[in-house]
Specification:
Elements (H helix, E strand, L loop, with lengths): L1 H12 L5 H10 L2 H19 L1 H28 L1 E5 L8 E7 L5 E7 L14 E4 L3 E6 L4 H5 L1 H4 L2 H4 L2 E6 L3 E6 L3 H14 L7 H18 L30
Length: 247
């Protein structure tokens, strides 16, 4: 009965859209397959729950978090084009914001149309010193979400909204183009303020990178000679006919 229960629970985790999909998933989860999954999970749990492994994991985490932080700041330096969304749902105006290479200033300004690449710092009219930023506000607490009644009712927009509070009561208001950019910018701004990066994107990156790093460090390298210097970079090929542009 326990195996049957586990088959049903695992089949439901993929959220089948029909009874046929549910039955197909059950057929793939045979008794033998369930035993293999159990054994694999048990081995992974035993390997990664031992005290030395937990200590190594704790030691590596700050390194991974610093790597994620640098990636976020680099993305802010590249900049993002944001839409100006009014209560009438007009989305024909754009503005661009990017962080200076020294991480001390946010450059931003209006655009006539969506850019095809990065917008140079000198073409952005306004500046906001990072030292003047007091806090990062998200969601329904943002002033532009409170002011605009139509936007206030739009859950999708609420989840993409964030604001930068500076001076006493001045705000720089954002609506990210998607959830990914929202996470990148809120993480990056919090990192600039010395605060914790708490987005789902950061948690996912931490789990992925930490797992990869743990597996690399735990590789069995006995009797394997590791070179002290990296191998030389090969010469460039005579042509690039093998490169395909998929766009």
């Amino acid at each position: 009965m326990q195996v049957v229960r586990e088959q049903i629970m695992r089949a439901l985790t993929v959220k089948p859209n029909s009874l046929d999909q549910f039955k197909s998933r059950l057929q793939n989860l045979s008794y033998t397959e369930i035993l293999k999954i159990r054994q694999s999970e048990r081995m992974n749990q035993e390997d990664f729950q031992s005290r030395p492994i937990l200590e190594l994991r704790e030691k590596i985490q700050p390194e991974i978090m610093e790597l994620i932080k640098q990636q976020r700041l680099n993305r802010l330096c590249d900049g993002t084009c944001f839409r100006k969304i009014s209560s009438r749902r007009r989305q024909d105006k754009f503005w661009y914001c990017r962080l200076s290479p020294n991480h001390k200033v946010l450059h931003y300004g209006d655009l006539e149309e969506s850019p095809q690449g990065e917008v140079p710092h000198d073409s952005l009219q306004d500046k906001l010193p990072v030292a003047d930023i007091k806090a990062v506000i998200t969601g329904k607490d943002c002033p532009h979400m409170k002011e605009k009644g139509a936007l206030k009712q739009n859950k999708e927009v609420l989840e993409l909204a964030f604001s930068v509070l500076y001076e006493s009561d001045e705000y720089l208001n954002f609506i990210a183009p998607d959830k990914h950019e929202y996470c990148v910018w809120t993480d990056g701004l919090n990192a600039l303020l010395g605060k914790e990066m708490t987005s789902d994107y950061t948690k996912s990156d931490m789990d992925t990178l930490l797992t990869m790093e743990m597996k690399l460090r735990l590789l069995d390298l006995e009797n394997i000679q590791i070179p002290e210097a990296p191998p030389p970079i090969p010469k460039e090929p005579s042509n690039y006919d093998f490169v395909y542009d998929c766009n």
